[in-house]
Amino acid sequence: MAEFWRLGGWVLGAWLLVAPSAWAQTSVAELTELRAERREAALYLTAQIKLELGLAVEDALVKGLAVHFVSEAEVMRDRWYWYDRKIGTATRFYRLAFQPLTRRWRLNVSNEPMSGGGLAGSISQSFETLPEALDVIRRQSGWKVAEMADLDLEARQYIAYRFRLDTSQLPRPFQIAAGNQAEWTLMVARQLRLTPDMVR
Fold first, then answer.
1. Nearest one of 148, 154, 160 to 196, comparing CA atoms
2. Domain parsing of the chain, residue ranges
3. What pLDDT shows up at residue 10?
4. pLDDT computed for residue 27 by the predictor
């Protein structure tokens, strides 16, 4: 019985953090730029995202909940006879949290998933304001996605890019409460066809 009330308290707390309101600002994620360029022996990606967090997400952050974002890029080669072949991949993980004692925002960036206390391999930065922290996530540049030696000058190739808010990193009760809330559904995806100029 005690376990039931404890779970009920978690669910209620999660609901209070993500409950929509009539005047809530909607979260926005739009890709405004996506380009690739060759630098020496590798292909690099640059992405620019219009990213705005809804009031429910901001409120959850202020109340101590860390929010995770994931950017993924896959370099693919067309194959008419089978699934397209993956020839390069890169992923960036972002963990955004508010530090109530210092009143600062902390952003961790890593090429490996960050869960629990696993932040050792990440780069950490602190910011005075939330927009400053979000600007780092919005501008993704100098991102190595493939070696030029793996690209075929004669083949049709493209980059499949995705950016999303990763609700799977939220505590389980918050995942349930956030599952149907539009403010927590942030995702953008686009394909960029590689031209000969990009791979020569």
1. 154
2. 27-199
3. 43
4. 83
What pLDDT, on the 0 to 100 scale, is given for residue 6? 47
Residue 21, pLDDT score: 41
CA distance 11 to 185: 19
Three-state SS string across the chain, please? CHHHHHHHHHHHHHHHHHCCCCCCCCCEEEEEEEEEEEECCEEEEEEEEEEECCHHHHHHHHCCCCEEEEEEEEEEECCCCCCCEEEEEEEEEEEEEEECCCCEEEEEEECCCCCCCCCCCCEEEEECCHHHHHHHHHEEEEEEEEEHHHCCCCCCEEEEEEEEECHHHCCHHHHHHHCCCHHHCCEEEEEEECCHHHHC
Q: Which of 12-26, 34-48, 64-78, 96-110 has the lowest mean pLDDT?
A: 12-26
The mean pLDDT of the chain is: 84
Sign of CA dihedral 54, 56, 62, 67: negative
Q: How far is CA 3 from the centre of its chain?
A: 34
